[in-house]
Amino acid sequence: MILSDDLKMAINQHPLWLHHGSFEFGLTVHQLHSPKLLVPTLCIKVAKSQAAQAADFFTKVYDGEYDELPLGLKFLFFSTYNCTTSDSDCIMLAQEQDQFLSVEHTITIKGLHPPNTKVCLAPPGNPFVTIWSLLLVN
After folding, report:
1. Cα–Cα distance between 17 and 35 in angstroms, integer?
2. 116 inside domain
3. What letter does residue 129 receive in the DSSP assignment?
4. Ordered DSSP codes for 6-38
5. Is 23 part of any domain?
6. Residues 6 or more apart from 117 whose CB is under 8 A from it?
7. Which of 42, 55, 70, 131 is spaced 20 to 30 Å from 62 by Cα?
8. Is-contact 31 41, C-beta < 8 A?
9. With helix as H, strand as E and coil as C, how does 82-138 read?
10. Domains in the chain: how many in total?
């Protein structure tokens, strides 16, 4: 589970956003379909006129080489803009997402401030995020 408001805020504060971002986007969860699997997937929605710019930005951020990730979260980014995805691509993506989800764990935590409390990460200048986001990163 990812809290999309915190993630969107962190994306908007990413160093690449100033030069490659500045487009409107939304984050939603949809089911990724493949012939054998149906898995929840975080999706980025943008206007069609900004799809190429958005695909370029998110590819640069989540290409596996950039050290600074929004909220420190690693994602597999796959653009569906002008996509010619084959069935084998869908199966591979669904399997990778299913494998990722299979190792997620949940625990009960008590004694913290309310989970929607915003805290600032060190060093100064980092974004304020909710306690929920910090718990979900680990």
Report:
1. 36
2. no
3. E
4. HHHHHHHTSTTHHHH--S-EEEEEEEEE-SS-E
5. yes
6. 130, 131
7. 131
8. yes
9. CCCCCHHHHHHHHHHHHHHHHCCCCCCCCCCCCCCCEEECCCCCCCEEEHHHHHHHC
10. 1
| Amino acid letter, residue 102 | S
pTM of the model: 0.68
Q: What's the whole-number average pLDDT of the chain?
A: 79
Residue type, 135: L
- Identify which of 30-44, 45-59, 82-96 has the greatest average pLDDT: 45-59
The arithmetic mean of pLDDT across residues 73-86, rounded, is 75
Examine the pLDDT at 46 and tell me if it is beyond 90: yes
Please count the CA atoms within 13 angstroms of the CA of 38 that sit on its side-chain side.
2
Tell me the two tokens of residue 75.
């994602």
The amino acid sitting at 22 is: S
The reply to whether 55 falls in a domain is yes
